[in-house]
Amino acid sequence: MRIAALQEQLIEYAKSIGVDKIGFTTASPFHELKNRLRRQQELSFQSGFEESDVELRTEPLRLLDNAESIIAIAIAYPSKMKDAPAGKKGERRGIFCRASWGIDYHVAVRERLQLIEAWLKERVPDVRIKSMVDTGELVDRAVAERAGIGWSGKNCSIITPEFGSYVYLGELITNIPFAPDTPIEDECGDCTLCLDVCPTGAIVAPGQLNSQRCIAYLTQTKGFLPDEFRGKIGNRLYGCDTCQTVCPKNKGKANWLHEEFTPDPEIAKPLLTPLLSISNKEFKAKFGHVSGSWRGKKPIQRNAILALAHFKEQSAVPELINVLKKDERPVIRGTAAWALGKIGGHEAGLALQGAKEREMDAEVLAEIEKGLALL
């Protein structure tokens, strides 16, 4: 079969399996990206979750030795929640970012990549393919940009004309020499809203992110959250959407296209206090299918404690005291101590004084002192 005809048929097939955009690019190295990634490493701006080998991230031929092209796909996800419950005094709620609404996108994107792989193998028996989503070596955004899916915004997200930046990305490297698409022109213009409103100043320059300061990254860490960020996290349990929600290109993009990404409001915006005593089994049963659960319950619980402190939620004080007394994990005990100081009140003060006398862990003791100072 002629490659041009195969490419046209593949575009149609991709649409039929729920791929919202598909683009093609060559397998040539990402030279400019290589320099950018090296600079990120020098500045210690990387999160540590990504592939550390810059060569593997920028040279497709190292991943598939006879690579000719890369197929990029994008799947849109919703930016609006229907029937979202409102948190109120006594019933405060946290929030998972939009990319963690509905089924884990790694599963959804991978399923579509596997279908495309099977479709190609049926038509080109000697085809070679390597596919990846998010956790692969290649930089999804760089591939999507070069394949014409969208342009790379100042907030470091791929922005598509059709769906804004609310898209999941994936790609397949292959030995089929598909015709490359033309990249889309950058439409950010002189807008700097995303830089202006980033709560922690993580977007240090247009298209340059210090991941170590990004709330999306910080919500996924397992240790104590550094003091300077505790007042910035708000009620975020996982991820951060601020640089997306302010983007003019996302205005009016609801993207209610795929049932599997429709959020369950009680999972996407859960009550905070019950999270403090949730068991591993309960956590897995309720949140196991969403991408925000990948680091387990500990970061979510720590963030829930910080959110209760953010709201100064007095009704949570007894539960926080229980955590301070009984939780075996120093990070959770210590964060509860800090939160009690932030919320304040006589009961919180007595609990902190009592904890100071019995606590053996140096880090937790330091948090108790911070809590007492806040009182």
Q: Provide the helix percentage.
A: 40-55%
The gross shape turns out to be: elongated
Query: SS-based structural class?
Result: alpha+beta
Could you name the ranges where pLDDT drops below 50 across 5 or more consecutive residues?
A: none
Mean pLDDT level? 96
- In the sheet with the most strands, the strands line up as 1-2-7-4
How would you characterize the largest beta sheet? Answer: 4 strands, antiparallel
Query: What count of helical segments does DSSP give?
Result: 16
Annotation, overall tally of beta strands: 10
Beta-strand fraction estimate: 5-15%
Measured between the Cα atoms of the first and last residue, the distance is: 74 Å
Tell me the Rg in angstroms.
23 Å
What is the chain-wise order of helices and strands? HEHHEEHEHEEEHEEHHEHHHHHHHH
